[in-house]
From TrEMBL:
Gene Ontology molecular function: calcium ion binding
Source organism: Capsicum annuum
Keywords on record: Calcium
Residue span, EF-hand domain: 112-147, 178-213
Protein name per the record: Calcium-binding protein CML50
Region Disordered: start-end pairs: 1-75
Compositionally biased tracts (Low complexity): 25-40
Length: 283
């Protein structure tokens, strides 16, 4: 059927794990009352959920604070530090920062990995280095009639290795294959009219099934970004659906790392913000 990458008989992805790791409640959506709040839902007496307007006593974002509060950018400490750089010169990471170009640690295939997945990796790893690069990964995925752009391949590699070295090992390669199999099933399930594309309503339901609750405004932005027709179809095809999912999943996971109180809000330093967003822009 047009729009769907067919499975190759006898040479499929292999069976995915029996239980998928998606949360029971979508991120940002209200959950059933319980003693433990769902991620993104504030505990009792805390601030409102992420994206919900604050009570009248709280000033809207961007409104000047009362005179008792220091204006944004004015340090409380007697010795000011350059914005976003701590004690380091402007634009340079503090010693605690981790490089997105850190070397990828060698890995092995998880126990029980499908032999077909292992064979695919070994075929691509012609030099026997234990790693394959972006073009080799793109070629392997194309052998399953899944034509992905290098940008999508780069996002896959970044999300599953947490580096921009653009190499991937056996363990990460296996995760990529199982994840793509899962996402293809989701795409086909929510493409209810079997058009080979999903519109904003279908995309909303697909993201909800993966645990992400995004607003109509964000949905419109995602569809306009990933619609190959430039917005005429107002729908996205399978390969761009994968890139869309990678972006939503990646940014949400990075945000959750900073949301230590599970309130749906997080504080980022300038350096952390840049390192969070830039990999998705330069992939």
């Amino acid at each position: 059927m047009s729009g769907y990458p067919p499975n190759v008989p006898g040479f499929g992805y292999g069976q995915p794990p029996s239980a998928q790791p998606y949360p029971s409640a979508p991120y940002g959506a209200p959950g059933a009352p319980s003693s433990a709040s769902s991620y993104g839902i504030p505990p009792p007496h805390s601030s409102s959920p992420y994206g919900v307007p604050q009570p009248p006593s709280a000033s809207p974002y961007g409104v000047p604070q009362p005179p008792s509060a220091s204006p944004y950018g004015v340090p409380h400490a007697p010795v000011p530090s350059p914005y976003g750089a701590g004690a380091s010169p402007y634009g340079y990471p503090t010693p605690a920062s981790s490089s997105p170009f850190a070397s990828l640690v060698p890995s092995a295939f998880p126990a029980g990995t499908d032999p077909n997945v292992i064979a695919c990796f070994q075929l691509a790893d012609q030099d026997g280095s234990g790693f394959i690069d972006d073009k080799e990964l793109q070629k392997v995925l194309s052998s399953y009639n899944q034509s992905f752009s290098l940008r999508t391949v780069h996002l896959l590699m970044y999300l599953f290795t947490n580096t921009n070295t653009r190499k991937i090992g056996p363990k990460e390669f296996t995760s990529v294959f199982y994840c793509l199999q899962d996402w293809r099933g989701i795409f086909e399930r929510f493409d209810r009219d079997r058009s080979g594309r999903i519109d904003s309503c279908e995309l909303r339901d697909a993201l909800l099934s993966m645990g992400y609750s995004v607003s109509p405004l964000i949905l419109d932005l995602l569809v306009s970004k990933y619609d190959k027709s430039g917005g005429m179809n107002k729908a996205i095809e399978y390969d761009n659906f994968i890139e869309c999912c990678l972006t939503v999943k990646g940014l949400t996971e990075k945000f959750k790392e900073k949301d230590t109180s599970y309130s749906g809000s997080a504080t980022f330093s300038y350096e952390s913000f840049m390192l969070t967003v830039l990999p998705f822009l330069i992939a």
